[in-house]
């Protein structure tokens, strides 16, 4: 959004007044931000300030050196340097908080109030922060070959699919282990407990900068999806350092650390029911897959899924001189999965593709990326090192049991879920991590309640972070409050 010159000058003057930055030049990339052990803010990206905070690689052994964590701040219109900062904790793992804050900059004041500053960050291993691990070490051909071997679609698409996915998964860990050994010796030091400690380092550094007591500093945070795991971990490790914490779209932290994501699809099929009822209510002018009743919509969708399972559709693209391809059962399942999370934008996409398939046109489905295949390693590496010593998904029997449970839980996505979320990739990871980076005990505040009660939020129908996860976490933190919104979809900003 373009801003008037006078407004930009006024904003810049407010930033200078709040942080004393008038004499520093504006930067447009994090590569130009100098890491510092102190919280040093540099004007960046026109309306933000940026910092790279040096943190210990290992908080239990500081002699190993440091890495840097990228933070970005948006000053509230009525905020000062002493004002609390609300930290947006991104989802993922592998999600960028820097991108999150940039995307939602215009909503921050409306959501939380202009008396606060708004901060977000890239956790270790993500984008602008240190310890970026490339498991395939720049070998794009090897990465593509692995994806072809492993990303075979739904686990029941053939009699060999489950076995192929299980056994090929070990290839990924071998490449990651080799990359750590050869290129980045501490590349596995990206665990969520380490990220929680980085957040404590940040709030202490921020308090020091504001002339306040570091030992009394508390985290004010809003976490979403995997960000709720970071928040719950922080609250479990440092219960007396919780200021104000909102965890929205709660992921089951225990299942996350066990690499046993059994409950995530708990409300997937309920979401399909909502799709059918909302499509019917919207009418034929607003839902392209409209039918005379929700049951009619669901039945027609089931028939399309069945037909595609038995008969993949070849898409020649001869007339457009495009590359030949095909539309498959796995593609349709992935489409449903990927568009459940944000119904406002995703449901119309589902309706459009189903309408086209019903009329014999599979081109749209064939052209939509199905999300299979690994293009970035940050999220997968974080998950796999987090489940170190706790992984409940290592043997083929465990994988088969997990897949069968997912299929029984969700008719529509249970068979595609395992290959999209890829928990099986962690089965052969063997990181050597210090105890300080490993969660052994249950995530809870039962032993010592948090210094301020946590607010948990959830939609009543959530296809990715189901309501039962929020209810479970609430029971683990005495005094916490669960706020329900009558709605469907994964809670987002």
TrEMBL record:
Keywords of the record: Hydrolase, Signal
InterPro entries in the record: AB_hydrolase_1 (IPR000073), AB_hydrolase_fold (IPR029058), Serine_prot/Carboxylest_S33 (IPR051601)
Listed SUPFAM superfamilies: alpha/beta-Hydrolases (SSF53474)
Signal peptide: 1-20
Limits of the AB hydrolase-1 domain: 84-479
Domain of life: Eukaryota
Protein known as: AB hydrolase-1 domain-containing protein
Native source species: Bionectria ochroleuca
């Amino acid at each position: 959004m373009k801003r008037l010159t006078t407004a930009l000058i006024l904003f810049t003057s407010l930033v200078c007044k709040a942080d004393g930055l008038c004499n520093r030049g504006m930067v447009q990339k994090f590569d130009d931000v100098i890491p510092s052990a102190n919280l040093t803010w540099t004007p960046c990206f026109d309306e933000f300030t940026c910092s790279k905070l040096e943190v210990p690689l290992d908080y239990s052994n500081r002699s190993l050196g440091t890495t840097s964590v990228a933070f970005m701040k948006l000053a509230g219109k009525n905020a000062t340097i002493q004002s609390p900062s609300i930290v947006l904790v991104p989802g993922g793992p592998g999600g960028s908080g820097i991108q999150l804050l940039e995307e939602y900059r215009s909503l921050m004041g409306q959501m939380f109030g202009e008396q606060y500053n708004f901060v977000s960050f890239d956790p270790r291993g993500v984008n602008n922060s240190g310890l970026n691990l490339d498991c395939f070490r720049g070998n794009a051909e090897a990465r593509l070959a692995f994806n072809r071997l492993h990303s075979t679609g739904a686990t029941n698409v053939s009699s060999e699919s489950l076995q192929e996915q299980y056994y090929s998964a070990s290839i990924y860990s071998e490449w990651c282990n080799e990359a750590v050994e050869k290129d980045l010796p501490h590349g596995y030091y990206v665990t969520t407990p380490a990220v929680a400690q980085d957040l404590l380092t940040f709030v202490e550094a921020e308090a020091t900068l504001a002339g306040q007591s570091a030992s009394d500093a508390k985290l004010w945070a809003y976490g979403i999806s995997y960000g709720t795991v970071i928040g719950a971990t922080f609250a479990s490790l440092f219960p007396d350092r919780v200021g104000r914490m909102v965890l929205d779209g709660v992921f089951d932290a225990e299942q996350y650390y066990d690499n046993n994501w059994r409950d995530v699809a708990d409300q997937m099929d309920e979401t399909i029911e909502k799709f059918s009822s909302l499509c019917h209510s919207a009418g034929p002018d607003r839902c392209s897959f409209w039918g005379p009743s929700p049951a009619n919509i669901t039945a027609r969708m089931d028939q399309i899924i069945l037909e595609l399972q038995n008969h993949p559709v070849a898409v020649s693209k001869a007339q457009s001189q495009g590359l030949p391809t095909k539309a498959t059962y796995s593609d349709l399942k992935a489409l449903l999965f990927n568009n459940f999370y944000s119904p406002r934008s995703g449901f119309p996409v589902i309706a459009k593709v189903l309408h086209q398939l019903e009329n014999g046109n599979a081109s749209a489905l064939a052209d939509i990326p199905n999300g299979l295949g690994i293009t970035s390693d940050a999220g997968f590496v974080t998950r796999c090192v987090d489940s170190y010593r706790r992984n409940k998904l290592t043997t083929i029997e465990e994988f088969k049991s997990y897949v069968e449970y997912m299929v029984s839980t969700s008719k529509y996505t249970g068979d595609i879920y395992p290959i999209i979320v890829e928990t099986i990739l962690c089965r052969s990871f063997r990181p050597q991590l210090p105890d300080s980076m490993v969660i052994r005990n249950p995530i809870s505040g039962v032993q010592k309640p948090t210094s301020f009660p946590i607010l948990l939020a959830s939609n009543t129908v959530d296809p990715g972070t189901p309501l039962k996860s929020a209810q479970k976490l609430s029971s683990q933190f005495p005094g916490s409050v669960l706020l329900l919104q009558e709605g469907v979809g994964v809670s987002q900003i």
